[in-house]
Design goal:
Length: 400
């Protein structure tokens, strides 16, 4: 018998970390790797944010803060939610966490009872199902069709809801597809949710600002305020401000859930890093030029990459509405044999072939609950993206 708890034994290590590790190992072994695995901005944290962190250190903000985060940061988050999302939260309805991932994990930890069902639209962010499993819940995967831009539709949601349904996890823009829900999409989902008053809803808004649609995104809570008493909003500064290493995220929601998250945090991690909180405050309150420029850069990479992928035999993809990934359909390369005689039975074979024969690292769609695809990142230079797609073209040029 293992001495590791069974609920943890069932948790798989993150496949994106595994893919990144595999690419790094090949690179260390001297192989040239075109890395399209990255899940973080390729920019440095903006200077004014770094300077705010240095100033906080010099001011002595190097001690414990309130478990739920500094009053200044929680107020700044409340202001952000009001300004950008038209949602009113009191700072005591907000908890600052060690990244958005930690916020999601704690929200599930304080609410999921063994056997509770957590609805997860697929393609999904790799961590959701395993977080649910770690909390002894049951992930229920809801497939979302490429023809519907990989978005969850109302009928699929309704058909999946049962008396055991505890949560719906909604991520827009979505990792890995970039699927971005419109007001109408959210309205249709809200109408279903209104019929199931015990279901909690978590919106993972971490890619909110990495959006290529015209005009601001609407929030589910603003579309249907009646959902607010059971809505937990998760967001953070990682992707928007190129601050993945600083580990600051947050959750906003009803006081009982946020309060329980704060209690859990007070007995586990305590506060998120004090210096990082000062940096996050500067990010939320400071000049937003960086965000606009980063999005323009991602957007031009997206346009170029989508065009090139669609010109590559065996591959196709839709232009994502947000985030910095392409979810590439590789069904045209599956069940075929490469020029070198390698049979590609599924997306995992495709991904291993690209890595081993061409040195291109991407992540198989199976990791996101959706075989037949792979995810490639555009959070890297256009030269790397172009080179990666060129090698894909070579890889699939003579499929039999
Ligand atoms: N949610 C989604 C959909 C993500 O893709 C990621 C990071 O990859 C996170 C949350 C985690 O963000 P953080 O770095 O703030 O923990």
């Amino acid at each position: 018998p293992s001495r590791i708890a069974s609920r943890i034994l069932r948790v798989k290590p993150s496949p994106s970390s595994a893919a990144a590790d595999r690419a790094a190992a090949l690179r260390r072994a001297g192989k040239k790797i075109v890395n399209l695995v990255v899940g973080e901005p390729d920019f440095d944290t903006p200077r004014h944010i770094r300077e705010a962190a240095c100033a906080a250190i010099e001011r002595g903000e190097t001690r414990y803060t309130q478990n739920a985060g500094t009053p200044a940061l929680r107020q700044a988050i409340a202001d952000k939610l009001s300004r950008e999302n038209a949602l009113r939260y009191d700072p005591k309805q907000i908890v600052v966490t060690c990244g958005a991932k930690h916020a999601i994990f704690n929200a599930l930890s304080v609410t999921v009872e063994p056997g509770d069902e957590v609805l997860i639209p697929a393609p999904y962010w790799v961590s959701y199902p395993d977080m649910v499993i770690a909390c002894e819940g049951t992930p229920v995967v809801l497939p979302c069709a490429e023809s519907n831009d990989f978005k969850l539709d109302a009928a699929t949601l309704r058909a999946a809801l049962t008396p055991r349904s505890r949560w719906l996890l909604l991520n827009s823009p979505t990792n890995p597809t970039g699927a971005t829900y419109t007001r109408e999409d959210l309205r249709a989902l809200a109408d279903v949710l209104l019929d199931f008053p015990d279901v909690l809803v978590l919106t993972d808004d971490i890619y909110e600002h990495i959006s290529y649609t015209d005009g601001p995104l609407v929030h589910l809570g603003a579309v249907e305020p009646a959902l607010l008493p059971r809505l937990v909003i998760v967001n953070g500064v990682s992707k928007t401000y190129a601050m993945t290493g600083w580990r600051i995220g947050y959750a906003a929601g009803p006081e009982d859930i946020i309060g329980a998250m704060e209690t859990l945090q007070s007995q586990s991690t305590s506060n998120a890093c004090s210096v990082s909180q000062a940096a996050a405050l500067a990010a939320l309150e400071g000049d937003q030029t960086f965000v606009r420029e980063a999005v323009l850069t991602y957007r031009s990479r997206r346009d170029r990459a989508v065009e090139r992928i669609n010109a590559t035999p065996g591959l196709s993809c839709r232009a994502p509405g947000g985030a910095f990934y392409l979810f590439v359909n590789c069904q045209g390369a599956i069940d075929r044999t490469t020029a070198g005689g390698r049979f590609l039975a599924n997306d995992t074979d495709v991904v291993m072939y690209l890595l081993e024969e061409k040195g291109v690292a991407v992540i198989a769609g199976a990791a996101y609950g959706t075989p037949g695809y792979f995810r490639m990142s555009i959070a890297t230079s256009i030269d790397v993206i172009e080179e990666g797609i060129r090698l894909m073209g070579e890889a699939f040029s003579d499929l039999r």
